[in-house]
Amino acid sequence: MQGNLSEIDIRSILQLIELGQRTGELFVEAYSSNGNSTGTKPTSRSTVRQSWYVFCFNGQIIYATQSAGSLLRLRDYLRRYKAEKALEKIEVPYMASTNAPEYGYLWALLEKHILTPAQGRNIIHSMIHETLFDLLSLHQGSFTFEMGSALAPQLTSLDISSLLAKIVKQVQQWKQFHPHIQSPNQCPVISDAAELQVALPVNTFNTLKRWADGRTSIRQMARYLNRDVLTVAKAIYPFVQQGLVQVFFESVTPASNKKEWSSPKTKVPRVVCIDDDNVIRKTVESILSEHGYEVTGISSPLQALSLVFQLKPDLILCDIAMPELDGHEICAMLRSSSAFRQTPIVMLTGIDGFIDRVQARMAGATEYITKPFGENELLMLVEKYVGPGSPEATVEVYLSKK
Q1: What angle do CA 84, 217, 114 make, to 5 degrees?
Q2: pLDDT score for 263
Q3: What are the Cα distances from residue 331, in Å, to 3, 51, 301, 346, 366?
Q4: CATH fold group of domain 270-400
């Protein structure tokens, strides 16, 4: 099942999943500008792609997230239980090789008894609610629902009908804040502390002063306070109307009442090289970094499965012959994830690797390059899929060789 949100809305899609008692993954993609989801294709550098994932089991939702690979949201929720520092001590769980690394880390915290099952369920319920709030606010974009095995293990499941009834109502209520508050991703900042202090109880003022720093979004405040985003927005709305509090998108520097937007940065192509051979890996890192690419070498194939979800590379170079997991297995696992369905994956094969090349194609590899390879051969291949690196870096390398 796939299509465009201009033809069918998210609510109807979820109702079909519930009606058919379907198990699988819903992938939604849209575009946003300055924190607001528009759904339209990008027309400028400030417009970025957004994606969401909803995991279902027998017509119920078991987990949902935006932008697979990031642990920032989980870190925010862990602050409720003073457990955010524990995340740094957790070894990368094998479950993180799915579309839901955040979910894998959450389970690792449960297994180590850092979180209780009740706390874990509370976090997952909040994650599902905030993801659906965003999705039900979308009017344009594209979606794909793929039938498949359920995300496992499962901690909880939520009924779609009751969720929709509640969140659709919240989305409608959110409209009352326009145009003063447009998005949960906006960051409040106090503009008149003296007058605001008079208008609020001491504890409320101190709480708002703590978080209204121009860097913490309304959504993050809701996570920290264990409240829904509508409640937090409703609390600050009267003061935004009065001008005592202002809200900015994170890219804005609220140094004065004048809104100044930061200039967008050119995206540097990101490349990951997975190879247990230290010489090959270091050579690739050296060549590509000199020519302006952001490159990360990973020696452990098991570690690579989780790290690529955090790094979200534009291109993956992967050796075939490695211990624990070979390149074909890594490629197949990545291709099973919507996050890397379209990412170019180039396999590094030996000089007599005809069978390797055939198997690489079967596993979903985009192309292969035979070892040993030269600098020009590598650069031509990388540029073919992700374009040239940073122009400034390329000029520096050129001048240094003159």
Answers
A1: 15
A2: 35
A3: 27, 22, 11, 9, 10
A4: Rossmann fold (3.40.50)
